[in-house]
């Protein structure tokens, strides 16, 4: 009989060890699942970034194609411009040569005009000499006529000749004066023409300088067009190379995206398997916890049962004296508190829970330093109140801080809590991950005790503690 009793004790010890090891496995699974969840979240975030990158890359590829087309068109334009410059260079050179020859010709007119002016001046001198001769001849004719008159009839013939000489001299004088007048006008016209030619010569010299500069500019333009053509060819080469690189990068991104999706699927599968293992380990832990053996979890199970009983008494008394209605207790019309982040909600039960249950939750949580907190959870995961340390006023813009220190009035749900809410037992012992926001988790072990009022399942009383 003693041997049987000893075997029974040994079996109970083995069952307790099995439960504890199952709990440790569940804890490790929970932590690993949390890690895989974070890895998966990061992979999904990277995949989202990758999709945006692929979108940008698609636009880049389109722009690159346009750049390639533009570069090729630019190269063709450079080739056409170079051909046009080459074809027009000789024509422009000939035209400029003709202009330069015309300038030289105009410049040469100055010498001819000055020679012409010298001839006019010489003719003017001759005309002056003829005028002087005509005057002298006229005087000679007058003197001859006077002498003929003194000689009488014997000199009448000489008088006639003298008169004719005088008349001819007058005509010659008049002709000489007329020629002198015309030569004067011609001299003035010639001098004005020379002045105009001199102005044209100055302009021609300026034009010649501009022509020389224009020739230099044309040569520079031709050189620039040649360089432009060379650069355009280089641009075409670079854009073609860039286009090939972009195509290769797009292919690489596509392959990476496919790999990322496969990795996400594999991580999800591994996480699901670990969650299944976590569930089995938690089931073993919970089964072992319901045995007669005392384990390190027994203290917290007792604390949870005592706390749940006190909650039942407080709420039952309030329902009986009318300070709390059944409708307010089971109110699920969650009214969001404006500006809260993460969202917080109010129900008809929230204020009663703060006033009548928070102090009791603080008192029970203080019984053991390993206890993170005691709280109430309704069937939808709503926490109407919490211990004071988790009921701090939210800080605007500090979501992570709020997630940990203002957990009251929030809604939380995970697989283990859902199993406890839907399960039929006097208590549930599970290991799970406490969500701290943005992929942060804390592995906890919790005892859940069902809360039933007026024959209706309201939710759970939870004691969460660290192992």
Automatic annotation (TrEMBL):
InterPro entries membership: Chemotax_Me-accpt_rcpt (IPR004090), MCPsignal_dom (IPR004089)
Coiled coil found in the keyword field: yes
SMART domains: MA
Annotated PROSITE patterns: CHEMOTAXIS_TRANSDUC_2
Coiled-coil residues: 260-287
Alphabetical list of Pfam families matching this protein: MCPsignal
Domain Methyl-accepting transducer stretches: 21-278
Domain of life assignment: Bacteria
Keywords annotated in UniProt: Coiled coil, Transducer
The family this protein is said to belong to: Belongs to the methyl-accepting chemotaxis (MCP) protein family.
Protein name: Methyl-accepting chemotaxis protein
Naturally occurring in which organism (per UniProt): Sphingobium naphthae
